[in-house]
Design brief:
This protein is α+β, with helices and mostly antiparallel strands. It has two domains: 1-39 and 89-119, no CATH class; 45-84. It is built from four helices and five strands. It has helices at residues 15-19, 40-64, 68-87, 95-118, and strands spanning 2-4, 11-14, 27-28, 35-38, 90-93. The protein has a three-stranded antiparallel beta sheet. A two-stranded antiparallel ribbon has the order 1-2. Helix 2 packs antiparallel against helix 3. The longest helix is centred in the middle third of the chain and has 25 residues, at 40-64. The structure holds zinc ion. Zinc ion binds next to loops.
């Protein structure tokens, strides 16, 4: 399963590469070698939606005393996850921006460590 690269418009992005892509660690196109990623708001939104489905099915299962509803909710959450990731848009990103995002990531991690040690 591959996805269309936003640079060369050929199916050069592996499904797993898309699944784990971010600004700091973008997916690499197997055909043109350029970088692209799924927006952080999209990937976290997919996670939140899945969590919401599981929580709601858990509440429904408890309210109606129907444990299988939890399994149904889990199934729905997984199906939603796959569908949402398939539909998620890949955005092109340059190597420079990816490097910058990684530096900012390290900078934030360093700051957090500093504050963590200071307090
Ligand atoms: Zn490409």
């Amino acid at each position: 399963m591959t996805y269309v690269c936003p640079h060369c418009h050929q199916p050069g992005i592996a499904a797993m590469a898309k699944r784990w892509s971010s600004r700091a660690s973008p997916a690499v196109c197997g055909l043109c070698g350029k970088l692209s990623h799924v927006l952080a708001s999209t990937s976290s939104g997919i996670g939140v939606a899945g969590l919401l489905i599981v929580v709601l099915s858990g509440i429904a299962a408890a309210a109606w005393d129907m444990a299988p509803l939890v399994l149904l909710g889990l199934g729905l959450a997984v199906a939603n996850n796959f569908r949402a990731w398939r539909r998620a848009t890949l955005w092109p990103i340059s190597k420079e921006s990816a490097d910058n995002a990684r530096k900012v990531g390290w900078f934030v991690a360093g700051l957090l460590a500093l504050f963590g040690l200071g307090s």
